[in-house]
UniProtKB/TrEMBL annotation:
Signal peptide: none annotated. It comes from the Bacteria. One of its GO terms (molecular function) is phosphoenolpyruvate-protein phosphotransferase activity. It comes from Aquibium pacificus. The lineage of its organism: Bacteria, Pseudomonadati, Pseudomonadota, Alphaproteobacteria, Hyphomicrobiales. Keywords: Coiled coil, Cytoplasm, Kinase, Magnesium, Metal-binding, Phosphotransferase system, Sugar transport, Transferase, Transport. This is phosphoenolpyruvate--protein phosphotransferase. The chain holds residues 427 to 752 of 756 of the full protein. The gene is ptsP. Belongs to the PEP-utilizing enzyme family. The keyword Lyase does not apply. It is found in: Cytoplasm. Transmembrane segments: none annotated.
Amino acid sequence: RQELYRELRERPSLSKDGVRVDLMMNAGLAVDLPQLADSGAAGIGLFRSELQFMVAATFPRAEAQEALYRQVLEAADGKPVTFRTIDIGGDKVLPYFRGGEKEENPALGWRAIRLTLDRPGLLRTQVRALLKAAGGGELRLMLPMVTEIGEITKARHLIDREVNHLARFGHLLPTRLKLGAMLEVPSLLFQLDELMRVVDFVSVGSNDLFQFLTATDRGNGMLSGRFDPISAPFLRALKHVLDAGARAGTPVTLCGELAGRPISAMALIGIGFRSISMSAAAIGPVKAMLVELPVRELERAIAPVLADGGASRDARALLRDFATAH
Ligand code: PEP
Ligand code: MG
């Protein structure tokens, strides 16, 4: 298998019928970087910047943040990298940071963009480090756990101020800055057109989106596997996001665990995703599936599942049958 994956690495990322699908990897620390070349990923679709904060004993200094981001961009060597601003809070606690009160529902709590907008010093330091590290190139920034459009507006305002500040002091700025939002909170599903207008890209965080849509704690073993993301309701939600992105010309990608399982990746491609981000180890198996996949045929097979008003067919069984037949 390893032999096969190595060989696949050199092949273009095309389906059997020639549809291009970018397979990106998720990363978060310098130790992940060699996997970029090893896996043949098209880039880093999700850089979980909070990991540097989680392995540290105190808040990483601005210099340390900038140094890591430089290292990441250097390793990427021109391939796109999407940096997520720190997603701390919830299950990602920093032992040295006690900002809020004790929370009964941390997943629904003071976390991610909510926390960093309330502690703008944290966000400002990180944004500045990113802007400096990406000087002269493209910077792709992504906001976690966005619930309403106003959060994006506020973050953009803060980013603009940092850009102006650095410009005033003659720093080399990124040639292009793209701001994206993670779609993880269901409320965004009902503001899709507005969302697509205010961001440069959207990335679905399927781990959290599925957790919140089904009201199912993603870490609770008693419930794992009970509800299936490869099912009509979840796939329809994702299709709505893709359709809104297409209407606005805003790229939509997905970076949760779903992307890393061949059968789920197949479902995602079947409903229209053309870029997905997964753990580096998953790229080989997913690419092995992709090169054998007749995408147009799969699109036709999966269409009845997506049609609202139709019966909620067993999507997983349909996909399994399709995979066996091909
Ligand atoms: C997600 O929620 O799907 C995601 C990619 O973010 P994380 O797993 O880090 O919460
Ligand atoms: Mg998440």
